[in-house]
Model the fold of this input.
Amino acid sequence: MTLQIAQVNAVEILDSRACPTLAVTLTTNDGTRTRAGVPSGASTGSREAVELRDGDQSRYRGQGVLGAVGHVNDEIAQALAGHTFASAADVDRTLIELDGTDTKHRLGANALVGVSLAAWHLEAALAGTELWQHLAHSAGTEPRLPVPHFNVVNGGAHATNDLDFQEFMLAPLGAPSLAEAVRAGAEVYAQLRARLAAEGHATGLGDEGGFAPAIDRPEDVLQLLVDAITDAGYTPGRDGVAIALDPAASEFRQPDGLYRVAGQALSSDQLIDRYEAIIDRFPVWSIEDGLAEDDWPGWVRMTERLGDRVQIMGDDIFVTNPAIITEAISKKIANSALIKVNQIGTVTETLDAMRICREADYTQMVSHRSGETDDAFIADLVVGTGSGQIKSGAPARGERVAKYNRLIEITAAHPSLPYSLAAS
Ligand code: PEP
Ligand code: MG
Done:
């Protein structure tokens, strides 16, 4: 099967934060059409593929993406339209060569990722299979439904409160099925809202649909979560509903190298001590970006000290980059990777990063970005690759639940698909 692309089109649309992004449409000669929406992060790793923004302060505070849209409609369209490709991977290779930079800053990673996502959608459509089945076939992986991680309290770069840790997620590890895990997430979310209101906290939402109360100590948020889990009738812990953290520590590391948490300045080792005390007291099972992306010696010590007790996951430090992940694995940094397609720029490179993690026995979590669209590609990606974990924000707001709802639809149509954290 080949991809005969007739038309390539991009437009500037809005993401979930009122910020411009791209929608890309690919059309074949026979009229098959697929569309992709491009996600965008706020707490980005410095080595992520570079998103192209216009910088024209008279539009969208400089955040416009007309330049990236123009690259898709001109240079990329010229390279793809009227041409035949052996596969979506072949389209990705063409995009990478056309851009010609290591960081994809010439055409823009946002331009490339939109075309890449649409090309994989297109290949699946032409093959007449579901996207997740097609991705499993391409990657040679066993499909599996993931455990969803619901970000129910937002801080850091995703909210205007004083909470330094960015994400507090519910992880319903004890749920017997994807549908029951979603139910647990939604029920605890509702109880959390009631408890916050009862204790006089604001119940306004952050960028990922979680609550953003004016609380600064992470331990106080964790206690609220444990109480809300109990209120909803679940057991806090790995047999019921556990908790995952993404402190996104690069965001609160100071120029002097110290980490500022709730008004205290902590060294790397003091912050690791704090995580240890948190793990002793609360049912936290996973910590993402516990230290800053350039604190590699700290990461080695954190992995040594806590890696047997919790999942130690790299996001800003790894940026879904096969070369960086390979180097980090050789240095025994972390035991798990967060996976975001737009950090590296194409689906092919993302699948490569995921293969490297699998081969090193690193667990993986497929992730949305804080700026999202209704595109649910990541739901199919996590099922097809059998990665076992996904985070897509709160169980609220359309752009977040689009991914969870896609997972529910997949499980309803394919009830025999396994559901668990990782391959058993
Ligand atoms: C994250 O840090 O894991 C995240 C999803 O945030 P952002 O998209 O803002 O990088
Ligand atoms: Mg993160």
